[in-house]
Amino acid sequence: MIYALNFDWLTNLLAILFVVACLYDARYDEYGTLTLSAAAMGLAVMAIELFLKPAFDMAL
User: Fold this and answer.
1) Membrane spanning segments where (predicted)?
2) What pLDDT score does 2 carry?
3) Burial (0-12, 13-18, 19+ Cβ within 10 Å), 7
4) In the chain, where does DSSP find H-type helix?
5) Residue 3 and residue 17: Cα distance in Å, rounded?
6) Counting Cβ atoms within 10 Å, is residue 50 exposed (0-12), middle (13-18) or buried (19+)?
């Protein structure tokens, strides 16, 4: 159960993806599409962690 509610690895993975997307967009893409999508995924993970994790902790 500890591993199921641990979002740290996913947050770190999305941070690495965001940096890679920024580097790629700076070189090849003029609109920054990958950077915006990586940032949106990061915000979604943070929202899941913020809103769902306390509910699971209270249910235990």
Assistant:
1) 7-26, 32-52
2) 57
3) middle
4) 8-27, 33-59
5) 21
6) exposed
CA distance 57 to 5: 9
This prediction has a pTM of 0.58
Q: Would residue 48 be called left, alpha or beta, if left means φ above 0 and alpha means ψ between -120 and 50 degrees?
A: alpha
Tokens of 6: 């641990």
CA–CA dist 4, 34 (Å, integer):
28
What pLDDT does residue 6 have? Answer: 66
Tokens of 21: 């997307």
Beta strands in 1-60 (DSSP E): none
Residue-range domain boundaries for the chain:
8-55
